[in-house]
DNA sequence: CTGGATTGTCTCTTACAGAAGACACATGTA
DNA sequence: TACATGTGTCTTCTGTAAGAGACAATCCAG
């Protein structure tokens, strides 16, 4: 991610081999990488592997992990030499929920929606410039649409992404969306201009539907939740089979918009 | 800590006062303090106050907070210059829940218990040597017993505390319990020996009841949840009015123990 | 308007945290 | 038995991150 611009790599390089790394990193950054790495892997990781995973010296990771474990942010996992997230992070997370009306009520609403409709429902937000499924509730279909909470998906792949970007400057949008993001899972390629137009349309319409973008079997219906300031702060969405009738789709969108509007009345 | 050899410390020292400190702190530690401070205050804090709160130089806190906000661990709160926990922490917290059977099932069970009995129910664990309410469900009584999730209470004040310490060496227990911890909210003072005896008794009995410890109106019933290794990994407890009849108390304890046992069958 | 307090950004210095690498001890496997 | 691979702890070196402090810009009370 963040090498790039770095000042010219030592010309003599290290005779040893590749290892360009070398750069001395701030401890905090190492920690942030550790957390991201664990989040990405969704399981306990051995300290050695962790060091490899974040490309940091073993000794450093040992020190940091000890601090983090002592602090309770990480915990040694059952068998012995692996670590994963700790109780403290859970507690802080709950603090976040408590301090965040929208999230708390949004979760509730999403659970309701999936129970009422039987479809998979999700609460989505921008998370440092990335689309994030903040909460999802599975729905009752035999073929369950997989979607882990916290999963980060390119904005252009989703209906929610189009709504979340409504109101942003073109430049900002270009900044958030990489070239890769425009390539769909099946290899098709979106045009940035089309995407930006979609955003405008979705913003004006107050809802958005996408068909067969992430996979060929589903469509995604989304409605925006507004902050007091009138910005799109989140979306709630439903993931339904792509062959859902026009009529039913319409009904679901109406339902979704009503619920999203209700969520928007925030203090 | 480790000055000593250093070349003469400023001879004038700090005229200010107390704070001999000055010691240069690791950035990571500062961050840990920041998080604890926010957790303790349960609300967004201005950066200046944050610096005061964790007793750190302003410039340092500005730098760290920026990193943390960029990383999404903290978020700028509504009005502008305050910070609180961020979405990332919530996501990591959910990861913890997902990776932790006991917590997931325990939360469920606690919710069930409070619904079934109408009493306040809690899931408790040791969190780096401190008693922690990991999840609580309010119950239906008019006088709701307050108990925020994540609240940390001295071990000797609680029934759960007695169970959680079962199986620890005396020395370890002495280490975990400070003098202050032995002083109850109403000023009474427990004897360490009595407390340690309580622990043994509770451990042997497989449940624990305390009356009027934290406050004069409630008693606390707790049952231990065991890990595969046979250690007490958590407790579930009910907070009931202190005048609850012997008979009903007995029934509730039986219920509690059954549910705790069910939780103990972990993978 | 003035004086004090607070906010956010910057620069410079040096104490110290991160890195390197050696070590001792396990495992596994050829 | 030797040889590779992984783990956890220490010690030593040095580049840099934490801290002090100065600054301009707000804000507010009197």
From TrEMBL, chains A, B:
Keywords: DNA-binding, Transcription, Transcription regulation
Disordered, as annotated region: 1-22
Domain HTH iclR-type residues, every copy: 25-87
Domain IclR-ED: 88-267
Keyword Zinc: no
CDD domains documented for this protein: HTH_ARSR
GO molecular function: DNA binding; DNA-binding transcription factor activity
GO biological process, alphabetically ordered: negative regulation of DNA-templated transcription
Biased composition (Basic and acidic residues): 11-22
PANTHER family: HELIX-TURN-HELIX TRANSCRIPTIONAL REGULATOR, ICLR FAMILY (PTHR30136), HTH-TYPE TRANSCRIPTIONAL REGULATOR RV1719 (PTHR30136:SF35)
Name this polypeptide is given: Transcriptional regulator
Species per Swiss-Prot/TrEMBL record: Mesorhizobium prunaredense
